[in-house]
Design a protein that fits this description.
heterodimer; A: alpha/beta; Aspartate Aminotransferase, domain 2; 2 domains; 7-stranded mixed β-sheet; 5-stranded antiparallel β-sheet; 20 helices; 14 strands; globular; B: 481 residues; 3-stranded antiparallel β-sheet; 18 helices; 44% helix
């Protein structure tokens, strides 16, 4: 089998990464308007001076679909990860092409989004071999294939194709996903947890996000339905709740104790919501956390499970970063394992666990693969989940195959095992190093404190901004962390997401930065960030 | 005391109300029977590859190379892949920012959207803006996104053809909107009478509904009719006058089986109408890689093109798309390939043309075989499948059958289809799943089973049908249209 080669192909992708945003030639119309602004939302929204440039058709009332007449839930929802700052960055990147001298940096570095392969991380060879063989099954009939693919990837492709009726990878599958692949996932879950998993509990989706949407759709009938969400949170939750017309019930993670989750806080927020007439339906927990990166202690998880059981809440366990743990004193435990080890079964706890191919060490964001494992629901409820899944027919087959591969990777003795482990360990150890390096660098900055990234892919430093800076932000009608991030971008080309995009304790300011730029770029990033921060503080120090 | 977390009663009512018969009761029963060892012919969903249609070779070669770009470095890659597939893989990889494994722009790769725009321009003769084209994980997701934008509450109505593909009714239910039906006329080849439209709108308005949009499916599903240019003009004028956004589901545009009414896009007609319509009618057009002669359902690739939507609205749609981050990149590449297939002179052109032609010509033949087969049954009337992938015969059921259905607690066409399934293994979708006139019954089947199996399937159907009629016919009068 050919070993993974860092060659032409990688260069191709490297080049294309630099060129890709150049093709955004027509982002100009977006630049005229304040992107994603929610006029009715009072929190830190970005009004730009160009908002007066509205085209005639915006104000025309003779057309049925205008800004005034679309679904207000669409207007209300927000998603900062790809919001205003990113649009500005893309314009700058475009301009850099022709105006290199106008900027103190030569490239934009996107640290706004957990998109590892866009920053040079390589896919796991074995997985891609299998996917390629399943994409073009005629390859399996060619003798030359054995010279280009590992023997176990060929074997695995055959095994997978045998589980697909007619070997037809282009056909819609069962709406929950191909049975044989769900069997592999269930086996993987059992191997991970030590407790059995039922393939019929698995619903495969185009990434984990559609699964979250489905659950919100199911749980939320009106704004009287509340979902407990961690603050700070990954804004899929707030956006999804807004789109479905529900109410986000915040529970604050404690920054001072490493983003700890206190049951007392959960209880307080739950009671508060109930006293306002809200029926709280579910508790969303992201473990490892995003943007906060903490890995929950098992004891904490047991308390959470008991809390949900006692209060009659569905536990929505977002576990997409389960393979991203960087500290020796913490370990990932699935909520399913915790619940089962407490002796809780189907009748005790309604639990939905989400997993994705986008993160971990595989980082296959563009494939859109994922699943939710649904346990503790009665069969009539499960039928409704099935029905919702069936309206979209099925998730993409290639993503399904990949989801089964990540849950059943090469084992010791397999042909590809050595290279697989080397790739996996290489990526994970590098992520751990980058997490540490960036965390240390951030903690050295004046007025910045940063909890360690125990897991996931992000750092979420706290900015103790001087009053002058806050005033300057207010003068620009923008949130202080947004102000800081825009300045950072314009001075260094580094793109991060302001903390307001994730919510935070009012009056505190943060930003989320990924740990994903390649290791050789990290020193330059640290230098630029440090220099910028110093000059920012020089300008605004009280 | 532990509270109950989530039970059926407390579920979102909209979810409970929504129905999607394509994978409903008949399909579930068929799956059960299959598990028991019965041979089932699944004709319930437009899923060509599941019934033996082979994927086109060239696109699969390109996608395979994109999945494993390290192959491109191997000196022996030319033994397995033709040079044009290799070149095309390099081209699409260069459009990505990190290959298939990176999230793309939430609207889809700009380079692919440009190719889609060029395709639309070639097809219609009018310019198309890539910024107004969004790629999606299948056309269905695009439909849901647009309807989510348009529907504010149950006061908003969406005009939907009856019979319709139940994605529309299901989505409208889920979003809490109101479906406003307009009936297609079976006796006029499922034609659309604008008077029916007017009536439907007037009735809805009299009930306080604001009618916001109109859906057309062209070619039709389940009905298969191809709209004439004149018909599309009428519809566009109607939308202009009534201030409706037109949703043009054109996923079957490659599936045309007659020559009198070739496919013409709603966008083209709109542009040809000129002022005031061309700037005054809002239109969203949908397309997919799942149908046509590609049939790549499992890839989940699609796009929508927006015409005359205000920039601020486009931005909001972009915002919602960004929450899902990006559509899957392999299918985006497949879409690029679909809109810019091999050209004469390309190494792979002959094979590509041969494979495509073979599929389309066979579909045309199968459309005819099936229509004729149904019409050969005394109590069955079937309009010709002009386009799309389905046959939608009307089954005239005798009162005895309707009575038996009632006793079994089933809608008559469900009763019929279950019996058909149990007797022959043919898994169809009852017409009630698509909507039909009161007291008139249909079933939907696809024309996708392999050509060589068609005669046997139609014989099997006829045998069952004749026996069914013998069993339930007491000569007292039929259901009829």
């Amino acid at each position: 089998m050919r070993r993974f080669v860092i060659g032409q192909a990688k260069n191709l992708i490297d080049q294309s990464r630099r060129r890709q945003h150049i093709h955004h030639k027509n982002l100009s119309f977006l630049s005229l308007l304040p992107p994603f602004s929610a006029p009715s939302d009072s929190s830190s929204r970005h009004l730009s001076s160009s908002s007066s440039e509205m085209s005639a058709s915006d104000s025309s009332s003779s057309l049925p679909v205008t800004l005034d007449s679309i679904n207000p839930k669409v207007i209300k929802c927000e998603y900062a990860v790809r919001g205003e700052i990113v649009n500005i960055a893309q314009r700058l990147q475009e301009d850099l092409k022709t105006n290199k001298d106008a900027y103190p940096f030569d490239e934009i570095i996107y640290c706004n989004i957990g998109n590892p392969q866009s920053l040079g991380q390589q896919p796991i060879t074995f997985f891609r071999e299998v996917l390629a063989l399943c994409s073009h099954t005629a390859l399996l009939d060619e003798s030359a294939t054995h010279g280009l693919f590992s023997s176990d990837s060929i074997e695995r492709a055959w095994k997978i194709l045998d589980q697909i009726p007619g070997k037809a990878t282009g056909a819609y599958s069962h709406s929950q996903g191909i049975k044989g692949l769900r069997d592999a996932i269930a086996a993987g879950i059992e191997a991970r947890d030590g407790f059995p998993a039922d393939p019929n509990d698995i619903f495969m989706t185009d990434g984990a996000s559609p699964g979250v949407h489905m659950m919100m759709q199911l749980l939320i009938t009106s704004e009287k339905d509340g979902i407990l969400c961690p603050i700070p949170q990954y804004p899929l939750y707030s956006a999804s709740i807004a789109l479905h017309g529900g109410t986000l019930v915040p529970y604050y993670l404690d920054e001072a104790s490493g983003w700890g989750l206190e049951i007392s806080e959960l209880k307080k927020q739950l009671e508060d919501a109930r006293s306002k007439g809200i029926t709280v339906r579910a508790l969303a927990v992201i473990n490892p956390g995003n943007p906060t990166g903490q890995v929950l202690a098992e004891e904490n998880q047991r308390d959470i499970v008991d809390f949900c059981k006692q209060e009659g809440l569905v536990l929505l366990a977002d576990e997409v970063y389960q393979e991203n743990v960087y500290v020796p004193d913490k370990k990932f435990h699935s909520f399913k394992k915790v619940a089962r080890s407490m002796g809780y079964g189907e009748k005790d706890l309604a639990l939905v666990s989400f997993q994705s191919v986008s993160k971990g060490y595989y980082g296959e964001c563009g494939k859109r693969g994922g699943y939710m494992e649904v346990t503790g629901f009665t069969s009539d409820v499960r039928e409704q989940i099935y029905k919702m899944a069936s309206v979209n027919l099925c998730s993409n087959i290639s993503g399904q195959i990949l989801a089964s591969l990540i849950m059943s990777p090469p084992k010791p003795g397999d042909d590809s095992y050595e290279s697989y482990i080397a790739e996996k360990d290489g990526i994970l150890s590098s992520l751990a190093r980058r997490a540490k390096t960036l965390e240390e660098a951030l903690n050295k900055l004046e007025g910045v404190t940063c909890n360690r990234a125990e897991g996931a892919m992000y750092l979420f430093p706290c900015l103790h901004l001087p009053q002058k800076a806050i005033a300057a932000a207010e003068a620009e009608k923008t949130a202080p962390d947004n102000f800081y991030c825009k300045r950072l971008l314009k001075a260094t080309g580094i793109v991060v997401v302001p903390g307001s995009g994730f919510r935070q304790v009012p009056g505190t300011w943060h930003f989320r930065c990924t740990i994903l730029p390649q290791e050789d770029k990290i020193p330059a990033i640290v230098d630029r960030l440090t220099a910028f921060h110093k000059s920012f503080m020089d300008e605004f120090r009280d | 005391m532990a509270l109950k977390a989530l039970d059926y009663d407390t579920l979102n009512e909209n979810v409970k109300k929504c129905q999607y018969a394509v994978r409903g009761e008949l399909y579930l029963r068929a799956s059960e029977l299959q598990k028991e060892g019965k041979k089932i012919i699944f004709t319930n969903v437009g899923n060509p590859h599941a019934l033996g249609q082979k994927p086109l070779t060239f696109p699969r070669q390109v996608v395979a190379l994109c999945q494993a770009p390290f192959l491109l470095d191997d000196p022996n890659v030319g033994m397995l892949f033709p040079a044009d597939a290799i070149a095309r893989a390099k081209h699409y990889l260069s459009l990505t920012s990190g290959g298939l494994g990176a999230y793309s722009d939430s609207r889809g790769l700009p380079g692919v959207r440009k190719e889609v725009a060029e395709f639309i321009q070639r097809r219609d003769g009018y310019p198309s803006d890539p910024e107004l084209i969004f790629l999606t994980d299948g056309a269905s997701k695009g439909v849901m996104q647009i309807l989510n934008c348009v529907i504010r509450g149950d006061g908003d109505g969406i005009l939907v053809p009856v019979p319709q593909y139940p994605l529309y009714s299901a989505t409208i239910s889920l979003l809490g909107g109101t479906l406003v039906p307009y009936y297609l006329d079976e006796s006029q080849n499922w034609g659309l009478d604008v008077n029916n439209l007017r009536q439907s709108v007037a009735q809805a308005r009299s009930q306080g509904i604001t009618v916001r949009a109109m859906v057309i499916i062209n070619p039709g599903n389940p009905t298969g009719q191809c709209l004439s240019e004149a018909n599309i003009r009428e519809i566009l004028k109607f939308c202009y006058n009534e201030k409706l956004v037109l949703l043009g589901d054109e996923v079957y545009q490659q599936n045309i089986y007659q020559d009198e009414r070739p496919f013409i896009s709603s966008k083209k007609v709109l542009m040809e109408m000129g002022s005031p319509f061309s700037k005054g009618v809002q239109l969203v057009s949908f397309h997919t890689v799942s149908k046509g002669y590609w049939g790549e359902c499992g890839q989940r690739g699609g796009y929508f093109e927006m015409t005359n939507l205000p920039p601020r609205v486009v931005e909001e749609i972009y915002k919602v798309a960004s929450i899902a981050l990006s559509p899957n990149v392999s299918a985006q590449i497949l879409m690029g390939l679909m809109v810019s297939p091999p050209k004469p002179g390309d190494i792979s052109y002959d094979q590509f043309a041969r494979e495509s032609k073979g599929i389309l010509e066979s579909l045309r033949r199968r459309a005819r075989i099936m229509t004729d087969g149904f019409n050969s049954c005394k109590n069955v009337v079937c309009n010709f499948t002009e386009g799309a992938m389905y046959s939608f015969p009307q089954i005239r059921l005798p009162p005895g059958a309707i009575q038996a259905a009632k006793q079994a607690g089933k809608v008559p066409d469900v009763f019929y289809c279950l019996k058909l399934l149990e007797a022959t293994g043919i898994s169809t979708v009852p017409g009630s799943g698509f909507g039909q006139k009161e007291g008139v019954f249909h079933l939907r089947t696809t024309i996708l089973p392999a050509e060589e199996e068609m005669p046997e399937i139609m014989d099997s159907f006829k045998k069952f049908n004749d026996e069914f009629m013998t069993q339930y016919d007491n000569n007292v009068g039929y259901s009829r249209m």
